[in-house]
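Treating backbone geometry as a discrete language has practical consequences that deserve illustration. The sequence in question and its structure tokens are set out directly beneath this paragraph.
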Amino acid sequence: MQLITRLALVYSHLNAKANTADKQVLNANLHSTKKPKGIKKPNLRKLFLWIHRWLGLVSGLVVLVVSLTGCIYVFEEEIRNTFQQQYLYIHPPESNTARQPIDTLWQIAQAALPRKDTLVQLRFKTQPNAAYVFITQTKKSVSVNPYSGAITGIRNLKSDFLYINLELHKNLLLGSVGKQIIKWNVLIFFILCISGLIVWWPKQKRFFKQAVSIKWQAKNLKRLTWDLHAVLGFYALGVLLMIAFTGMFWMFDSVKQITAAVTGTAYVKREPPKSMQHGKQLYKLQQAYTHADMRYPGATEVHLHKPMEGNQALRVSLRYPYWLVRNHNNLFYHPQTGQILRQDLYRQYTTFDKVKHSNYSLHTGNIPALGMGSKIIYFLASLFSASLPVTGFLIWYNRGKKKKAAHLKTGKLRHQA
């Protein structure tokens, strides 16, 4: 009986001590400014890493295709001038022979095609050795010597390597479905660039030098893969952000509207003007070009668009030398009377127009002010971009293998215990 009584006293004494300790802990927690250990601060870096990882895995294959085709397109002009000279250039006569009228050359080119193929456009450079290239609705082209009227080449542009490369870049050869995939993928790519920068950014300044250098001597292949992904991505980031933004500018009207608002310009989506009357085209192409060239001389390249319907305007596009903003004059003529329905002149560009007409240069790297240097920079950036899905996938795959190995090891230890 005495033993039971003693045990009861000991229990009551220990219980009283425990209650006192609990009260002290509770009071300390109430008056403490520190957060309980169970509640963690939200880790934004982990959130952006998660976004970066899964968006990268979803869009990786598309990024790879678009980047590689972009690499090729950077040097599109040089490739054409090297491998397609017979379609673009001719040997000009030594004497001062005049070019034949555009309408005559148009008839010659049309006669060389089946009836179902209707010519809709003429492109030519104003230099003496340039061929006239006529293009049909079905993407066939006829190259003509403008002095002799001789056909120098007929080809299907749809089977042209550079045309296929561009279509792959724009729509993955999947038509409107592919265009939508590219549209949203360019937005994803922009997010990947931003999230990648946040994930890469060193936590302390003293680690910055380490973060911008690749450890080629690293024995660990995983470490080298990480460096190739993070460091190359960092160096290419400025160009890749520019490519992504200009791509979104093309794809999203909302981006155009935001740009117009920032530049203080009203965004108006302009359609080509039309004449009020229908009828056969009476105003000749040569007349339109001569008038436009006399009015605004100095163009180095000319595009003429023939109206396909009775009330459509005849358009003459004159292209001039430029440094960044592409200088174009577009004149729209009444197909019957030759009256100018509208003219869009580069000297009247608004701030938004300048952004719009520099978009192509900033997207492709074809920036005359920087010469071949800009093309090399864009080529390397696109090449680095093509490597990012590969190195990103390897990082994700190796991470999965590491986790799996850790789970197996934990399972074995539990089994042994």
